[in-house]
Amino acid sequence: MLSMGYIPPINIRQVTNQVVGLGTHRALQSKTDLNGIITHASRSLADISGFAADELIGQPHNILRHPDMPDSVYYLMWQHIQAGEEFFGMVKNRCKNGDHYWVMTRVAVMQENGKPIGYSSARFTPHADLIPTWEDLFARMRTAEQSSSFTDHRRFKPAHDVLCKFVQRKGFNNLGQLVLSQRS
Ligand SMILES: Cc1cc2nc3c(=O)[nH]c(=O)nc-3n(C[C@H](O)[C@H](O)[C@H](O)COP(=O)(O)O)c2cc1C
Question: Distance, CA 150 to ligand 1 centroid (Å)?
């Protein structure tokens, strides 16, 4: 029997393939410490994800991870925020019951006296008609990740190449510009 607080590893988390719309919830917010442990979750994030705020706080942020998300997106995200830069990305998140929702996410560094003390994120609604394109992109990125024989950070290169080509074909210089252009 599983204890109440048990969070299964990402690869065995059940999904339903049911999408949840954000409805009137506009900005789903959270904050983490420098290790990605959730320190704050907005009511809207709790409502949409199906977790109580208490179940989110103290947990690693990958509690919301959907197995369709490529590792390389999160690698890129951590590279940016650990370098002190903000990151914009499209994210498919898993709800507690296995449903999912799509969000355009901005992650930024929080500082105190010039030193990083944690990260904050806000999530906004993307145009729904763009989602199939992102589903397809992420599937191609995951395939590229699996094709790599490297086990260190070099394994992300083929997937990042797929992402770069996607961004360029859409006429943008970087992922952030593309994502911002798709806010609904
Ligand atoms: C402020 C902040 C917000 C994050 N938001 C999410 C999120 O909504 N969904 C998610 O899967 N990961 C999010 N992450 C990234 C997770 O910390 C983690 O890197 C990612 O889920 C991949 O985890 P894994 O490689 O351990 O499976 C966030 C990280 C930070 C710092």
Answer: 23
- pTM exceeds 0.90 for this model: yes
In a domain, 170, yes or no: yes
Q: What is the dihedral of CA 104, 131, 76, 71, to 10 degrees?
A: 120
Q: How far is the CA of 106 from the centre of ligand 1 (A)?
A: 12
Q: How far is the CA of 91 from the centre of ligand 1 (A)?
A: 10
**Does residue 146 lie in a domain region?**
yes
96: in domain: yes
How confident is the model at residue 1, as a pLDDT? Answer: 45
Q: What CATH code is carried by the domain that includes residue 113?
A: 3.30.450.20
The answer, yes or no, to whether any atom of ligand 1 lies below 6 A from the CB of 29, is: no
Other CB atoms within 10 Å distance of the CB of residue 108: 16
Q: Which residue range(s) make up the domain with 101?
A: 21-181
Decide if 10 is inside a domain.
no
- What pLDDT band is residue 44 in, cutting at 50, 70 and 90? very high
Give the H/E segment covering residue 118: strand 115-124
The total number of structural domains that make up the chain: 1
Q: Is 30 in the pocket of ligand 1 (CB under 6 A)?
A: yes
